[in-house]
Amino acid sequence: MIINGRGISPGTAKGKIALCDDYISPLGEMGKDGKIKSGKCENLEFKGKIFAFKGGRGSTVGSYVLLELKENLTSPIAIINEKAELVILTGAIISEIPMIDGIPLNILRNDDEAKIDGKSGILELLGVVQKEVSTVYLFHGDKLLVLLRSNHVSSFQNQYSAISGHIEEGETPEEAGRREVLEETGISDVEIEKIGKPFPVRWENIVFVVHPMLARTKSDKIILNWENREYRWINVDELSRLNTVPRLKEALEELLKS
Amino acid sequence: MYLTQEEERIYNGEKGEAQAIAIRLLVSIGEINGAEQLIPIKSAHISGVSYKNIGDGGLKFLKKIADKVKVPTTLNPLGFDLERNGPVEVDRDFREKQLEIIRTFISMGIKESFTCTPYYFYQQPKYGDHVAWAESSALIYANAILGARTNREGGPSALAAAIIGKTPNFGLHLDNNRIADYEVAVDGRLDYSGAAALGLYLGANYPGKIPRLVGVDYLRDFELKAFGAAIAASSSTSMFHVENRTPDDILNRGRKFEKVVVDYNELKNLMEEKSSHEKPELIAIGCPHLSKDEIDYIASLVRGKKKDKEVEVFLFASRETIKNSSESIKIIEDFGAKVFADTCMVVAPLSKKYHKTAINSGKASFYLPMKEYGGQEIIFRNFNDLLRWAVIDN
Q1: Which CATH number fits domain B275-390: 3.30.1050.10, 1.25.40.10, 3.30.499.10, 3.40.50.1820?
Q2: d(CA B196, CA B137)
Q3: pLDDT in the model for residue B394
């Protein structure tokens, strides 16, 4: 799978990802032995890896620490940040370590094989495939429909979800959404009110690119198919009490906000 | 970001590794800040000179990027006076490393200014000049008093700009980002330390915002220097306006601002809260470095007087300022105070020897009590008040 980030420091690299879902201060936290010394990612080895973390923090002298690691042969071979800032950016450029930003960390896993191009900003996750899906938040009045996914679906079994399914070739996200509503609930009277910004969700070796949408129906009669084993009409604030697929609540909040 | 063909060639390494690294740094900083292009600069000022601050990694960086600078470039202070060897002893290894750093800078054609006030005697940008200055007290002075345009550069980005002769066009290089955010009046009359305390107060309460000071056009340049140094130390604010004084105040014409009135007593309280009440071991003056006018004024106050032996008095200024104030310096030294060039009270390891230091600087009052700067007890008062500790009555 190919992800377009932003090029920060030119050069290319191929290797395994070391992932840290935190900000890093090179001064004090990136040890000379190529391991993280403290914090949430203590003992994580970044030496010889593509080091993916949220961004930099701490002393600006941290930029020079990266240069020392490079000369010590214990630096990362490339850097991925969610959002670049001066400490890491400066360190990567002066140490000639390829770097990109604009990559959401939640699509990465430790030990993913990846290729990175620091000039174009392109990240290639080897052995990871991308699938486009539509997710429909269906409302009847102020009640939201949630479905408990069955044991027979290929991902996120036994978790609550909105109506969700693959976008097939030649289909728009909206068309796929309508089709999925009909297949999974039997409802055909659907008004799509709003389509939100797509976002990625990682599951095993698949990155689902989710196209969220808000829809209304006058019907509350549901006929389930094999994909789900239970449905509920709930108030939106009940979502946080359910075991749901990733980002279900956040994406809805985003949709309702904008 | 748009690069010219020439810039593209430099980026791809055709002019060597040092220039490639320099331009890549500028381009990436421009990219993350939304700049569309690089623009030529008239001068640069570099921070990160002290070995204590940049360490062995910094020295390696300098050697790697060492290429001739394309514009007049000056250097910030370091940890000791190269000729007089004070104010505090440094060990031999430290000194050797520091000299190696300086030799590397000199090989690049950079001036041995070692001052945070390069605008006295070394380089004075003109109204509208684009420059790339590090050192927060100097760059805010360039923006607010000289009317030049600079972002808040770090050591590496200022050096990269000097090597390429350009900087990414964003932030304070653009009119829109130089306009004031709020207006400030003071209920009371400010002096040097009062102006510095106002800087600390605004930095803490309106961080990153650009103030427009009204009704204070009686303040002299060196007092505005103290104000700027304090607000730039305590926040990311890198620009301010003074009504009837700041060249770019023209950008504020016809605009309405939120108004803040600061009570002078509040500033006095702020200074008192930071101050210890014990007798100081040291009175340190010159953060930022003193101007010739300030040195002449100090000389007029201590002429013919004798210093109390129990209190040291150190003054800090640049080599050129000291050279151009030789008569006053003699009066000050006869009084018993010591004058140092190349270094300052923040980068010199004063806390090795002194633990109670009296200052009139808001910037120093911000740094000296910090653990990494020795955790000093300070007394933050006006210069005339401080002098009472040091002069023997007769």
Answers
A1: 3.30.499.10
A2: 12
A3: 53
